[in-house]
Structure formats: structure tokens, C-alpha cells
Design goal:
- The protein is mostly helical.
- It is 70% helix and 0% strand.
- Helix 2 packs across helix 4, helix 3 packs antiparallel against helix 9 and helix 5 packs antiparallel against helix 6.
Length: 192
């Protein structure tokens, strides 16, 4: 793939992602904070749908076209500490890294500070990468569920997609996404 083709594919993917993000209203601070407070689950539903779609796409490109996948090793300490820091930041800011630009585009002025904070955090991490990596160093195995189950990746991916689809259906049947968006699309449910 040429650089131009890669850029065009990236732009097309970004446009589709941005459109879906805006239409789902997941970028709204009320939706994000509601998810962190376990009051609504619109974000979880959208992300589960994305994981399901991703599993199906990966199953197809692996099973039909033989594309090899490169697993990232599981690093427990780094993943847990990083996840807690990221989650705390999301809960405090009402924004996550993927939604900040959508919030800026929608006119949320606070999102500018979230963007600047994210850039400052990335720069700081860049300067302290070596000591942080040394502190959290551990060896993780590159093992996937397909290897554990002794099945081809595409079979495992379709199986997990089916299980997650059932879970998504159960969550949605408990409370519809339409009720979670709210009448004025701010993520606040009726009666709050």
C-alpha cells in the first residue's frame, strides 16, 4: 500500500468514525460521566458493538485472506495502572481521548483544556518513558484465546462476537439506547 493510499484509507476511516461518534452522541460529557457513574450504558453498548464488528472483520481477513495477526503482550501492572489513570481522567474531564475533538467541534469549550492536558501528558510521558518502562517492566506472553482453546483465530473471533452480541442484546433489552440518550441528547435520562 502506498503512502497516499494509506492516508486516504485513514481519512475515510476517520470520516466514518466521526460520523458514527456524532450520531451516537457518545461524545457528550453527560453520556461519558453517566457511564463512569454506572447510570447509563450507552458508551458500553457502542464500544461493544465496535468490538463485535472488529472481531467479525478480523475473522474474515484472517480466515478468508490468511492475514496474520500480531498480538500485543499482556502487561498486568502497566495495563491496570494505565487503565486506572485513564479512567480517573475520563471521569474528571467528562471526555476521553477519542471524543475530545468531537466535543471541540460541537462547541464544548472545556474540551480545549482536555486536549491541552492530553498533549501535555503525552509530552511528559515521552520525557519519562525510560523510568516508567523500567518501573513497570514485566514479561508478558503473547497468547490469545484461540491458542488457549486450540481453535483457529477466525472461529474463536466469531464465537466471541456471538457471545458479546448476546451480552449486548441483554443490556439493550434492559434499557433501550433511546431512553439513555434523553430527549435533548445530553446523555441525561428522563426524570433525573
Amino acid at each position: 500500500m502506498t503512502v497516499l493510499n494509506a492516508v486516504l484509507v485513514g481519512l475515510a476511516t476517520g470520516i466514518v468514525f466521526g460520523f458514527a461518534l456524532e450520531k451516537s452522541r457518545v461524545f457528550e460529557p453527560g453520556v461519558i460521566i453517566g457511564q463512569m457513574q454506572l447510570r447509563n450504558f450507552l458508551m458500553l453498548k457502542i464500544f461493544l458493538a465496535a468490538v463485535i464488528a472488529g472481531l467479525i472483520v478480523l475473522a474474515v481477513i484472517n480466515g478468508m485472506f490468511g492475514v496474520k495477526l500480531s498480538l500485543k503482550p499482556l502487561l498486568f501492572r502497566a495495563d491496570i495502572i494505565g487503565g486506572l489513570i485513564l479512567g480517573a481522567g475520563i471521569a474528571l474531564a467528562g471526555a476521553c481521548p477519542g471524543t475530545t475533538l468531537a466535543q471541540i467541534g460541537a462547541g464544548y469549550r472545556d474540551a480545549l483544556f482536555v486536549l491541552l492536558g492530553g498533549l501535555a501528558g503525552a509530552m511528559t510521558y515521552g520525557y519519562f518513558d525510560a523510568p516508567i518502562t523500567a518501573m513497570l517492566a514485566e514479561t508478558g506472553d503473547k497468547i490469545g484465546f484461540d491458542t488457549l482453546l486450540g481453535l483457529p483465530f477466525w472461529v474463536t473471533a466469531i464465537g466471541f462476537a456471538a457471545l458479546l452480541s448476546v451480552g449486548l442484546w441483554l443490556i439493550e433489552s434492559r434499557q433501550s439506547w433511546r431512553a439513555e440518550v434523553g430527549a435533548d441528547h445530553d446523555g441525561i435520562m428522563e426524570g433525573e
